[in-house]
Amino acid sequence: MHIALILSQPPGYSETFFKSKIKGLQDAGHQVSLFVYKDDPRFTDCKVLPMPKVHANPIRQFFATLGVIFGLLPYLKRVIRYVKLELKAGRELKQVFKYIYINATILKSDAEWLHFGFATLALQSEHVAKSIDAKMAVSLRGFDIAIYPLKHSGCYDRLWQLVDKVHTISDDLLLCAYNQGLSRNNAVAKITPAISMELFNTGAANKNFKTKPIKILTVGRLFWKKGVIDMLEALSILKKEKIDFEYQIIGEGEQKEEILFAIYQLGLENEVSLLGVKTPREVKELMEISHIYMQYSHSEGFCNAVLEAQAMGLLCIVSDAEGLSENIIDGETGWVVPKRQPRLLAKTLESVIELDDVIKNQFSERAKARVKQEFTLEQQQAKFVEFYN
Amino acid sequence: MGKRLKIAVFSGTIPSTTFIEHLIKGVSQTHKVLLFGVQTKPVAYESEHIKVYDTPKSHVKNAVVSSYRLLQLVLKSPKDAVKLYRHTSQFKKRYERWVWFTKVLPIILHKPDVFHIQWAKDVAFYTVLQDAFGIPIVVSLRGAHINYTPIVDLSTAIIYKQEFPKIKAFHAVSKAIGEEVKLYGAKAPSIHTIHSPIPPFFFDHYRACETVQDKTIRLVSVGRFHWVKGYETALDAVALLKNKGYNIHYTIVGPDEFTEALLFQCHQLNLVDNVALVGAMPQTELISFLRQFHGMLLPSLKEGIANVVLEAMAVGLPVVSTDCGGMAEVVIPNETGWLVPVRDSEAMADAVIALSETSELELHAITKRAHELVKREFNAEDSIAQFVRLYEGVVGG
Question: What GO molecular-function term can you cite, just one (chain B) (predicted)?
Fold first, then answer.
């Protein structure tokens, strides 16, 4: 079977989710090709086909359009079918021509499945699958379903009507889609992210919780939905209680100014450091020397970093945003705290820090075991092979 | 009256903000005002004592104007011309040397008695006027330049620490900001608190506010969406009030669409029907618009002193403000309003409840006191007179 994945760009080195998915499908004997808006020559795992670029220079755009028109001549039937479908759905003719241009590469494909890697990527391409006699699948990943539609109400109405199968990474995101009009009769499959146990592996040794001060870690872009300010406010309460801790955040982002000001205003300059972006290997090393992992997001699809932290034996404290409450089993493999309540987070942090080392190790070991059992790349690959059958 | 002094009111652009334009006009009653910088819009000042010496944006025009200015300077004071050339030769790129030469040239040529920098970050480029040419510098401490830039950007803090100890005089918009500037080495006697004036028509529109009936509370905030304004705290407080059974309506008046973060928060906290956005409006319209509310929220993380709060106090609207910057100097608990810690939505919700339970008599006593305080401390005449005294002090030694 030929499966085409549509992404904005080829998966980078650390994006195990897509890389392992592609490998799994290839190992099962399927042909996989990748359609991207922005190419990256470093990616060589499968065939990559760039989508036509929209040029700012009108002369370049003219020749690019000419090239696209000639390229599509042998596929005239498909193009006519596409135009008919689009017009029937009430799209303006001018828009339709623009979309033919954008979708030209896919219109030429002989794929049997078109799988859009994020729901937002399917906007403007809803009728392409039908035009080339392929089935359409879409993945719900977090931002695309939990946040994007707030400013673009009804943006997925067409998609829901036409999609053949929906992939979600958590139950909560699927619920978001149902609330936004996805039919409950639609075929769906939940396949959670998975992580590489080769890299994030501590061996058999128990984590040492005796070292002081308590080291707390978060990995994530410095971006509003990650709830960094709430975490800092909770830590300022810990400081008032004279608890000795260090907090490190791995990541960069547009919220940095606000976060730096909060660190200053809350008097946490000695305790908190922003480390910037780190490689997966460096992340692993920082996890090795940390005790607690915190992910108190306002919104979170699932969060690979929380899986990695569990695999590394850290005590994980997370919010109940979307997929996080499925990532961590509250009171068993970590702690799930209702979101947007820094005081409650501080209380949980305090009680976790005060736990006996034996109990801490029990949590750590249970989390490790569950991740090793339920979130392996092999399982994820098998589920994706099944997804297209 | 003695000889008119030449006061340069420098904000980089001509015309400047409403506020700085007001200062320009006010000062021109007593002294000459010189305006340097880039002219972005045509200006026509009535007063003959306001002179514009702009540096044209077009390179050709600038070359002509600046050549003429250079000729004048060489004739007037060849020494200064050499000094200016030496100063600009420190810039590495030829383009930068040219730009800075043409920006500083008219200032050296017309040598004001005081160079008043409106935006503190400009000290990096203009203290040379004092160091090499003996023009005393006054610096205003307003907005982001003092409120958070030097805190989140280390290089700005380093420049402030290097330059501030030399500055002849600072203008702080509140006592709190005056205290803060000491962190960067500003000397106490050089710091002068001069309040920003509130336009008189606000005071003319004072009216006793409405009181809360049947747990239905209408709140308002005015301002753009920026993290420093702390709207997350206000929305959290609104959610708490809603959960406590209050029928709550929160209106934000401002020029922006919701940010993604705030829109998401409204949905997540189920506040979509409780929160409304209204576009920015002229001050005269704003006054009557504000009448429908029971109180104004100021959830800011940092302020010099928030004008919107002063305006609310002037027209008689009760205020719940965070305790940041100079807010505590005007919002006095049990006297003129409700003051709560920053980042504390529970305290803010409690303050709104306290406001709603205050008797009409007591509430009107509070808003009357607030009105009187602002009228006394933030009037235009006093403000201009204080600036004039400040300039005269700097020149007199």
Answer: glycosyltransferase activity
**Nearest residue in chain B measured CA to CA from A339:** B268
Q: What are the tens digits of pLDDT across the range A65-78?
A: 999 888 888 988 99
Flag whether B190 is in a domain: yes
Question: In this structure, are B204 and B296 located in the same domain?
Answer: yes
Q: Is residue B102 part of a domain?
A: no
Using CB atoms within 10 A of its CB, is residue A23 exposed (0-12), middle (13-18) or buried (19+)?
Answer: middle
DSSP state of B198: P
To the nearest whole percent, how much of chain A has pLDDT over 70? 99
Do both B247 and B359 map to the same domain?
yes
Q: Name the residue in chain B with its Cα closest to that of A224.
A: B261
Q: How far apart are CA A38 and CA A50, in angstroms?
A: 7
Per CATH, domain A2-195+377-387 is 3.30.1370.10: no
Count how many domains chain B has.
2
pLDDT band at residue A12 under the 50/70/90 scheme: confident
**Residue B243 shares a structural domain with residue B167:** no
> What is the distance, to the nearest Å, from the Cα of residue A107 to the centroid of all Cα atoms in its chain?
27
Task: Looking at the structure, tell me whether residues B285 and B336 fall in a common domain.
Answer: yes
Q: Compute the distance between CA of residue A320 and CA of residue A300 in angstroms, rounded to an integer.
A: 9
User: What pLDDT sits at residue B1?
Assistant: 52
Q: What pLDDT, on the 0 to 100 scale, is given for residue B397?
A: 63
B 220-259 residues inside an 8 A Cβ radius of A: 227-228, 232, 236, 259
Q: pLDDT confidence of A240, banded at 50, 70, 90? A: very high
Distance from CA of A150 to the nearest CA of B (A): 7
Cβ contact A258–B227 (<8 Å):
yes
Same domain, B173 and B210: no
Pick the CATH number of A214-374 from 3.40.50.150, 3.40.50.2000, 3.40.50.300, 3.30.428.10: 3.40.50.2000
* Least confident among A77-86, A190-199, A260-269: A190-199
Q: Quick one: CA dihedral A264, A267, A273, A277, positive or negative? A: negative
Do the Cβ atoms of B312 and B331 come closer than 8 Å?
no
Determine phi and psi for A32, rounding to 5 degrees. -120, 130
Q: Which amino acid, A342?
A: P
Q: State whether residue B268 sits within 8 Å of chain A by CB.
A: yes
Q: Tell me the H-state helices in B116-153.
A: 123-126, 128-133, 144-147, 149-152
Lowest mean pLDDT among A94-98, B215-219, B247-251: A94-98
pLDDT mean over A192-205: 81
Contact between B152 and A340 using a beta-carbon 8 Å cutoff: no
- Delimit the CATH 3.40.50.2000 region(s) of chain A: 2-195+377-387, 214-374
For residue B143, being part of any structural domain is answered with yes
Here the tokens at position B87 are 């100063």
Q: What is the mean pLDDT of chain A?
A: 92
Using a 10 angstrom Cβ sphere, with 0-12 exposed, 13-18 middle and 19 or more buried, the burial of residue A284 is: middle
Whether chain B has a CB inside 8 Å of the CB on A255: the answer is: yes
Domain presence at residue B148? yes
Q: What does A258-307 look like in DSSP terms, one character per residue? A: HHHHHHHHTT-TTTEEEEE---HHHHHHHHHH-SEEEE--SS-S--HHHH
Tell me which residue of B106, B116, B47 sits closest to B81, measured CA to CA: B106
Chain A within 8 Å of B380 (Cβ-Cβ)? no
* B169 contacts B192 by C-beta, under 8 angstroms: yes
Domain enclosing residue B310, as ranges = 200-377
Phi, psi at B327, each rounded to 5°: -60, -35
- Per residue in B26-43, pLDDT tens? 999 999 999 999 999 888
Of B152, B232, B302, the CB nearest to A257: B152
> Which positions in chain B touch A299 (Cβ < 8 Å)?
264, 268
Encode pLDDT of B330-340 as tens digits.
Answer: 999 999 999 99
